[in-house]
Structures are given as structure tokens and as C-alpha cells.
Amino acid sequence: MISIVNYGMGNIKSIQNALAYLGIENEVISSPEQVAGSQKLILPGVGSFAKAMGNIERLGFLKPINTAVLMRKVPILGICLGMQLFAESGDEDGPKDGFGWIRGHVRRISPKEGFKVPHIGFNTAYFSRSDNVLFEGLEARADFYFVHSYVLNCSCESDISSWTDNGERFASSICRENVFGTQFHPEKSQHSGLRVLKNFASYERIC
After folding, report:
1. pTM of the complete model
2. 148 labelled catalytic
3. Quick check: helix, strand or coil at residue 28?
4. Is 191 part of the annotated catalytic residue set?
5. What domains can be seen in the chain, in order of their start residue?
């Protein structure tokens, strides 16, 4: 069972539809108490870093999610803004601390000639680790759907499991032990994205 955290800022329905298509049992949880019984977590996200972390704190999700991920080692997948929230901090809508599981900072994409911000559409993720749990069954690279104006600058390159180029190279996915994140939207990325969701659902070991 995968629990999708509803903290008021995520396209939950499309994730549910993708999981249902794959035959993966899932539920939407909307209270902090439900986190304690979760076997796997997905943290979606659409909007600003500061508002998202504010919602998580206000609704009481911060402590139980930290306990689940850090103490019980519950696997968690952050999608788009959800992945960015795993960083130490972000500056979208003002400086704000994140969960701090991944060393690094979330910043706006630097505009480059010939490249648009926000970065929208399919682009290629190049897999950078030999233990790419999320990408098992795929080749050395794959196309995924992106829509974002901010990126996670990782301080530890070993946390980056794939990278993408949009005028500048950025982390398109991360992995540290039971913590996974994708800057792209796997639920909107056709075959390759469905493979990522399926791999997360079947994950049982530390990467």
C-alpha cells in the first residue's frame, strides 16, 4: 500500500490514476495520524516551496513524516516540488527550511538564451548511478515530463541519481537510502514514468 500525502498542494488524482492503472494499491492520507501506519509514502507538490512547507508544518505533518522516514525507514518518493522539499532550504516566496534530508538548496532556474523558464515538456534524464532503483528496467537514459521553475542544487553529488540539461545541468532525480525524488512527473511520463512508479512500489531494499 502506498500512501499519498494530501497537504493541500499536489495533483493527487493523476498519481492515483497512474497507480490504479498499474494495479498498485494506494490511499490518500489527510491527517498526520495516518502517517504512522504507512508502508510507503508519496509526497506530491505543485506551487511554492515556502507555502508547501508552511502547509506541512501547519497541518502537523512535519514530525510524523520525519519519524516515519528517519526512524522507521519508510520509503518515500517526492515528486516535483515534493522532491525539492527534501532539501535543507529553498528561496521560492522567501527563504524557508525544508526537511533537510538532502544537503542542498532549491533555487530558481538561471535563464539561458534559447531556453525557457519555466521548463515545461519532455526532456531526457541521464542516469548517473549504477544502483538506480527507480530506473531498473530502463536504458541509460529516458524521457520524462517536466514542469518547474526551480531546481535542487545538491551539495553531495552522490545523492543525484539522474541529471537533465535545460541550458544548465540540474538534478532530475535523487536517492539517499530510503529517500527518493524526481523533479519530473512520472505519472505524466508515459511508459518510462510508469516504470518508475512500479519500481518504487516494489522497492524493498536500501539503495
Report:
1. 0.95
2. no
3. strand
4. no
5. 2-202 (3.40.50.880)
